[in-house]
C-alpha cells in the first residue's frame, strides 16, 4: 500500500501546476493536436512539450503520431472526474469561508 500511496503522491504533483490543469481541462474527452493545444493554452511550444512529457510519463495522456501531427488524449475519463472533484472541494471551501465572512460582517 505504501508504494501505491507514493505513486499517488507523484501523480498529484503533476496536478500542482495551473497550466497542466488547464491542458487537462481542455483535453476533456477529446483528442487534440499539439498545435490546437498551443493555441488554446497560449504557451510556447517548448513549454507545452515539457508539460506534455510530464503528463505522458505519468500515464495521464496518451500520445499518437500521424505524419507530422502529434495527438494527445487523456488516458482515462477518471482524470477529468478527479480534477472536477478537486475543484468542487475548493469551491465548497470558498463558499463556506464566504458564509463565515458574511456572518462576521453582520455580527
Protein model, in words:
With 107 residues, the protein is an alpha+beta fold. Helix content is 69%, strand content 13%. It is built from 5 helices and 3 strands; from the N terminus they run ααβααββα. A hairpin with a 2-residue loop joins β2 and β3. 12% of the residues are buried.
Helix and strand arrangement:
Elements: H1 2-14, H2 18-27, E1 32-33, H3 34-41, H4 45-57, E2 61-66, E3 69-74, H5 77-106
Antiparallel strand pairs: 1-3, 2-3
Brief account:
The chain has 107 residues and is α+β, with helices and mostly antiparallel strands. It has helices spanning 2-14, 18-27, 34-41, 45-57, 77-106; strands spanning 32-33, 61-66, 69-74.
Distance between the termini: 48 Å
Oligomer: single chain
CATH class: Mainly Alpha
**What fraction of residues sit in β-strands?**
5-15%
List keywords for this structure.
3 strands; 107 residues; Arc Repressor Mutant, subunit A; 69% helix
Amino acid at each position: 500500500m505504501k508504494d501505491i500511496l507514493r505513486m499517488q503522491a507523484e501523480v498529484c504533483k503533476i496536478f500542482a501546476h495551473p497550466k497542466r490543469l488547464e491542458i487537462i481541462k481542455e483535453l476533456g474527452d477529446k483528442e487534440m493536436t499539439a498545435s490546437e493545444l498551443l493555441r488554446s493554452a497560449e504557451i510556447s511550444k517548448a513549454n507545452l512539450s515539457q508539460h506534455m512529457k510530464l503528463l505522458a510519463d505519468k500515464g495521464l495522456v496518451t500520445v499518437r503520431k500521424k505524419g507530422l501531427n502529434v495527438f494527445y488524449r487523456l488516458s482515462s475519463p477518471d482524470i477529468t472526474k478527479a480534477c472536477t472533484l478537486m475543484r468542487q472541494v475548493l469551491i465548497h471551501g470558498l463558499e463556506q469561508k464566504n458564509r463565515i465572512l458574511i456572518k462576521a460582517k453582520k455580527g
